[in-house]
Amino acid sequence: MTGLAALNEQAIIRVENLEHSYGAFKAVDGISFSVKKGEIFSFLGPNGAGKSTAINVLITLLAKQKGEASVAGYDVTSDPQKVRESIGIVFQDITLDRDMTVWEILEFHGRLYNMPHDERKKRIDELLNLVQLEAKKDERTKNLSGGMKRRLEIARGLMTRPKVLFLDEPTIGLDPQTRMRMWEYIKGVNNEGTTIFLTTHYMDEADHLSDRISIIDQGKIVISGKPWELKNTLGQDLIYMETNDNEAAIRLLKDLPSVRDVKIKTKGFVLMVNVDGTKVLPVVIDMLRNAGIESSTINLKKPSMDDVFVFYTGKDLRDEPTGKTALLTMRPGGR
Amino acid sequence: MSLGFTTIYWRDMIRFVRFKTLLVSSLLQPALWLAFFGIAMSSNFDQMMSGIPVPPGVLTVDYLTFMAAGIIAMTTLFTSLFGGIVILFDKNWGLMREILASPMNRNHIIFGIGLSGVTKSFIQAIIIMVFGILIGAAFFAGFSPGEIVIGVIGILAFVGMFALGFLFLSAAIAITMESPEGLQGVVTLLTLPIFFTSNALYPIDALPDFLKTLAMYNPMTLLITGIRYFAIGPDFIAVGKHYQYTPSIVLISYFGLMVFTLLMFTLAWWRFKKAVVT
Q: Interface pTM (ipTM) of the complex?
């Protein structure tokens, strides 16, 4: 077997030049990627980037318009039945029948997938234990908290031991504690051999969970790679400065060998440096002082996934008014 | 054979039982029709008809008995045409995605919904029969116990086939529609002509030709023919008209219902195949 063939063998999801339009609007604009067996792969992008459309094509809910897409070795158009048998899905919004009990939700799902009775029973017990909902077994889902509902949905997605589990914004609307626990479940499931395809607009989630990330914006994949690779493309450190003469400062600093790139911000600028920022910073401050430029604000940080995103898409993920950037609004991760 | 439709059936029956208001109203509504409209119309009609001579030896039934069969049909029509609304709710609440993304054959959704709708219609039909007899409808009058059993089975067979047809139609509309309001509009638009161009409340012989033709092929007329045959008998006089049903008329009516149901299934099958729910 050649190296290339082995690589193809490993790809459990393969997408080539996938396009999908709603009328004149191109929601997915020619994306190509592949997901390796056993990895956690993320689509990171803002709302409306085309993540859900792409997922809906892959899970056979939307008919493919253009391009190639296969899941678990089956083409989504010619073999949708086989694809459906191979996957599990946790949808973006809560899709639980309010008037059914926790147990009934799982039982119904198991039956939909034609699981034998004994296996269903065993799996339901296991999963209720996993997501800590045993005490709520006979509770109707309308009486569950948001976190419990999400846990139940994840349990449902795992009922059938799918080859690929699709998680569309799995932790949307959850409190930080529950999110962390969700991540642990997801990792645990992945460790048992299930490939995970995740979409999220939470940077920290993509960063924390994924083996590989594709940043998607306006229907296109902007960049793909391992989280650290993506962050490294921005350099080793980021130095944010505000001075009394930003233009002069940039002219002075941009040709320094350690400075990889300069980004202009509303009130200041960001130096992306190739080396340890703590070593560069004194040099930079000296140079500015010698040139008679006063700096009023200095901030040094490691590039985060937010910075990667802002750098490659030119916008903040959090649907905030433009002008404020991720660098200026450093908050702990999360919502 | 896969039994996927029993899963859909199971779930829909859970919801039917849990949705207390819907359950009670769907059981109460036919009884109310019979109690108020039935008794009111009956006392009027019977007074009007009292002067008309009837041929001797033929069973004469009162208006309440005549229309009770129509009320069974009407209730079945309403319940079945609205039966698809669960599909619309599933669709709008995102629940349909779980089902459509599962490996289960989509026909099973149609069958499952059909089966639970038929169950509901059976329950209603039996309630109307019992309640009707309690307030004086002469159903199964003079029948032997064996004939009563055959009568009930016959009625349920007709009700079941008719209900399936309209549930398929309703499912087809629901999977195509976006909003419950839209479904309600279409369904209301359909029920009126179907109901009033049938022999539910009056004989159709005196209708203008155009309406009469419509009425003859109306599935609802076929259903009521079957119900009256099994509940009253093959030969009776009601509302001044002499009804004579031969077994072949009854069989042809049933066959007509089967054709209708098959057509509606095809329609639903086609709409579900096309269904895109995201």
A: 0.83
